[in-house]
Each structure stands twice: as structure tokens, then as C-alpha cells.
Design goal:
Number of domains: 1
CATH class: Mainly Beta
Number of strands: 5
Bound molecules: zinc ion
Distance between the termini: 21 Å
Radius of gyration: 11 Å
CATH topology: Rubrerythrin, domain 2
Number of helices: 1
Strand content: 25-35%
Order of helices and strands: EEEEHE
Mean pLDDT: 94
Structural class: mainly beta
């Protein structure tokens, strides 16, 4: 079983122990799964300040 983690800084979901996008600390305690395909057209992405396509967590503890 793969345990996915989410970056505490930019909320990118990753399997790595460090965020591949910003190098930030990752946490196993996260909730909600958001896939952003087109960040400029996604209202949620804009609200969350996401500017790149990818997988994100809605909440990271
Ligand atoms: Zn990050």
C-alpha cells in the first residue's frame, strides 16, 4: 500500500518524503483530494492559490 503525503506548504500530494514542487515538509495527515487540470479555469484552484496543474490536498494538518 502506497501512503500518499501532502505538502504542508503548497498542498501538493506526493509519495516522496519531501515536496517535489517546493521542497517543503510533507504530512500524512491530510484530507480531501483535488485534481487540478486547468488552474486558470478552476475556481477552487484560484481560491487556494494554485497556479500549476497537479494533485492537491484540500487540508493538511
Ligand atoms: Zn510543496
Amino acid at each position: 500500500m502506497i501512503s500518499l503525503k501532502a505538502c504542508k506548504n503548497c498542498r501538493t500530494i506526493t509519495e516522496a518524503n519531501k515536496c517535489p514542487r517546493c521542497g517543503g515538509e510533507v504530512s500524512r495527515e491530510w484530507q480531501g483530494y483535488l485534481v487540478v487540470i486547468d488552474p486558470e479555469r478552476s475556481e477552487i484552484a484560484r481560491k487556494m492559490g494554485i497556479h500549476a496543474a497537479g494533485r492537491y490536498a484540500l487540508r493538511v494538518k
